[in-house]
Amino acid sequence: MSTVLPLPLAEPRPHVRAGQRREHESNKLAKRLRHQVGRAIADFGMIEDGDKVMVCLSGGKDSYTMLDILVQLQKKAPVKFELVAVNLDQKQPDFPEHVLPTYLESIGVAYKILEQDTYSVVTRVVPEGKTMCSLCSRLRRGALYAYAAEQGFTKIALGHHRDDLVATFFLNLFFHAKLAGMPPKLLSDDGRHVVIRPLAYVREDDISAYAEAKQFPIIPCNLCGSQENLQRKQVKKMMDAWERDSPGRIETIARALGDIRPSQLSDPQLFDFLALGRHGDGALPDAHAWLAGEPHASDET
Fold first, then answer.
1. How far apart, in Å, are the Cα atoms of 47 and each of 42, 107, 185, 223?
2. pTM
3. Helices 133-151 & 118-125, crossing angle to 10 degrees?
4. Which residues fall in the annotated binding site for [4Fe-4S] cluster?
5. Where does the record place the region Disordered (predicted)?
6. Chain centre distance of CA 213
């Protein structure tokens, strides 16, 4: 009587294994991004029941990722909210007008394309060689805010990520002598709009990997993106060097931005240094008297 041995299982082909690994990593990344965005929304109260959220879509990797993750979260969120993607066509030369409508229709997201020729204004007003970002962003913000007010949006979602928040902190520190950054949630200067940044906890490298995996139809900015002398680019190079030399440093800095100790800084508006260690009910220090060196009454003869 002969024994029939079972045939060995065929090994998966190399390209099949590689494809499975890629899919596994992609799923892990998507899960991590959903967790980080969901946590940011909860930590800062970004989205409430009944909100109508204007998702500002530029055509770059950040805003595509933000929209994609918000759509995923919307399906299982504990509150009901509306998403509308809004893009501002600034009439830059060779802007591919068909890309965003085609993409948004393919995923079934409501959208609006605004048209305003800010490109001509910026290129006419800003001298050659000067940075265009400040004026460009002001004009873009004005157009988007006006549309948000007109349509009754309760929140405006922007695609700034963790690295943007850290970079803005250093820009203010190095070039404007103040400890200020880009908050995950803010009220506009006129008090009419609540702006949220759902990607506040998300690394830029993760966004790049996610955008590549999802194959978003990226539209490059050929207005300010080509300007190499921007202060933000200088800060970005510094941060990249830090991360190469000391991996995890940017995450540590990002966490520090959420752990402020006013008593360990030097702003008398945030911490009452005058009351610290004070004894008696005497008059508060007079800066003029200290600087002028005026004698104390008891020293006069």
1. 8, 22, 10, 32
2. 0.84
3. 150
4. 133, 136, 224
5. 1-26
6. 21
Exposure of 225 in the CB half-sphere (CA atoms within 13 A) = 7
- Give the number of other Cβ atoms within 10 Å of residue 232's Cβ: 17
Binding annotation: 133, 136, 224
Per-residue pLDDT of the chain (301 residues; tens, 9 = 90+): 555 666 666 666 666 676 777 788 889 999 999 999 999 999 999 999 999 999 999 999 999 999 999 999 999 999 999 999 999 888 777 788 899 999 999 999 999 999 888 777 777 776 666 666 666 778 888 889 999 999 999 999 999 999 999 999 999 999 999 999 999 999 998 899 999 999 999 999 999 999 999 999 999 876 554 554 578 888 999 999 999 999 999 999 999 999 999 999 999 999 998 888 887 777 777 778 778 876 665 555 5
User: How far, rounded to the nearest angstrom, does the alpha carbon of residue 202 sit from its chain's CA centroid?
Assistant: 9
Tokens 């990722």, located at residue: 65
List the strands of the sheet with 155-157, edge to edge: 111-115, 82-89, 52-56, 155-157, 194-196, 185-187
Give the β-pairing of 111-115 and 82-89.
parallel
Would you say 165 and 256 are in contact if contact means Cβ atoms under 8 Å apart?
no
185, β-bridge pairs = 196
